[in-house]
Amino acid sequence: MTNIQLKPLTKQVKTNLEYYNLWSDLKVYNFDNDSIQLLNGKPLEKLQPSESISNDKTRSEQEQQGNDREWIFPIGMDEKLTMSQTDFVFDCIRLVENERPKRIIAGMVNNDGTIVYYFIHDGIVRPRKS
Amino acid sequence: MSKRKNYLDSIYRNPLPINLTALNLKNLVFGFDIHQDQILIRYQDFIFKALDENSIKKLWFNGFFGKGQLSRSEPTFKERTKRRILPIKDFEKLSSEEITKLRREERKKFKQERLTLEKQEILLKSNKNFEELQKIEFLKHELNSKQKISNKKSLKELFDEQIIKNGKDFNINELRKEDLLLVKKDDEGNMDIENIEYLQLMPVEAFFLRFLNLYIDNIDDDYNDHEITMFPLRKLFYTCISIDHLQPDNRFIISYIVYHHYRSLGWCVKSGIKFSTDFILYKKGPPFQHARYAVTIVPNYENDDENMENPSATDKNNWIWFSSLNRVVSGVKKNLIFCYVDIPKLDIFMDKMREIDELDDYYDEGDKFKELFELYKIYEIGIKRWLPTKNRD
């Protein structure tokens, strides 16, 4: 994993996560002949648990079980992202984790250096209390 | 407050990185002596960046150009990080990022306390213990009133509480692996932080500064102080538009026209990405007051069929999009401005581009680009939602 050439977008998102959002232990993964580059790392504090509607477990059960690492998918502001591309990203992660993750995080990079993060869930989710 | 304003006025004196006292009339007419006041911008990994402290300072303090790569706006990474990981605690220089963090932690604490009380409340209700329930309700009321702005703790109080909370001795072995990489010792053996932050410029900012001959750039990846080259405006232009098939409604060109328009009228123009618009306008700059205006660019074609056909134009004619945009912008107390840019005819545009391409390298390209930009016309409309039941005046 150590000698992967970082794509410019990946590099920007990685630095932002490490030194702006203070995530740790970020790893880079390449998929599909290096056409897709994903990041995997640990947030400063555990993010909200992902709850899918089909899942009957309580919140606390899930929190205990939940993975404290997250998958990040860097994407440029001017890039288009289709449903099947998103689906493919979930499938790529299955190669590493043996199952599709409940969610990934899209890290959208703007040309002024701002990066905005969005959860993308694998299906519908229950709303949470604010 | 006026003391603060005077202070801000004194450190952010110039709207552009031009030192007028150093100029004489000749310079004003024939361009600036750039070597006198050097700003270096480097293009690397598709990003325009200022790396050295001198250039960063000049760009930020004279017109608020760029954004700290690891900050919300002004580059504060080094100072922030020092306070975060080294045993240095000075309240006076707190950055806006740190203030937000303190306030958020306060809010989180409030939510936890509220949750605890609510749980007790439910329990007491089910046990029909009304005496205790009254007490809880009183506590809840008290907790909520502490959240009112006038009752909130001051920043200084929050800051001091946090220091007490994290008051344990500094231990370098407890740092994150990532932070450990930043710690270094200065010449006197004091611990310091390596500054890994650069100032990132939007392509329109880089082009604007270069159009005004305000910086020297270096496009090569291998940074070499001895061979600093100023690459031609034309090359910079093609770098910014980043596609081969150039059309008169090219996104970069239109954005640049709008950026240049507001900059020349004295506005401080920053990205509007967080408010789903193209730009936001500050009267003077971010430290002074919030941006009053949010600008959305709408290309306008001479032929109305083209206005309907063009994908970006049809997006912009979508009423749902319009309505949601207005919601977001008014929600952050800004006024929405639609900035219409008249797109020139393809043949006129192409003629001008050909003239630019055929220029020989020593010709002043600025004039030709000026002619190109003058093919575009701008007019703006301010938009505000009107509610018949409320807005009677």
TrEMBL record, chain A:
One of its GO terms (cellular component) is tRNA-intron endonuclease complex. Residues 12-129 form the tRNA-splicing endonuclease subunit Sen15 domain. Keywords: tRNA processing. Residues 47-69 are annotated as: Disordered. GO terms for biological process: tRNA-type intron splice site recognition and cleavage. GO terms for molecular function: nucleic acid binding; tRNA-intron lyase activity. Residues 54-69 have a biased composition (Basic and acidic residues). Signal peptide: none annotated. Belongs to the SEN15 family. This is tRNA-splicing endonuclease subunit Sen15 domain-containing protein. It comes from Pachysolen tannophilus NRRL Y-2460. The lineage of its organism: Eukaryota, Fungi, Dikarya, Ascomycota, Saccharomycotina.
UniProtKB/TrEMBL annotation, chain B:
Gene3D superfamilies: 3.40.1350.10. The active site is at Y282, H290, K334. GO terms for biological process: tRNA-type intron splice site recognition and cleavage. One of its GO terms (cellular component) is mitochondrial outer membrane. Residues 252-342 form the tRNA intron endonuclease catalytic domain. InterPro entries: tRNA_endonuc-like_dom_sf, tRNA_intron_Endo_cat-like_sf, tRNA_intron_Endonuc_cat-like, tRNA_splic, tRNA_splic_SEN2. Its EC number is 4.6.1.16. Pfam families: tRNA_int_endo. Keywords: Lyase, tRNA processing. Signal peptide: none annotated. GO terms for molecular function: nucleic acid binding; tRNA-intron lyase activity. Constitutes one of the two catalytic subunit of the tRNA-splicing endonuclease complex, a complex responsible for identification and cleavage of the splice sites in pre-tRNA. It cleaves pre-tRNA at the 5'- and 3'-splice sites to release the intron. The products are an intron and two tRNA half-molecules bearing 2',3'-cyclic phosphate and 5'-OH termini. There are no conserved sequences at the splice sites, but the intron is invariably located at the same site in the gene, placing the splice sites an invariant distance from the constant structural features of the tRNA body. Belongs to the tRNA-intron endonuclease family. This is tRNA-splicing endonuclease subunit Sen2.
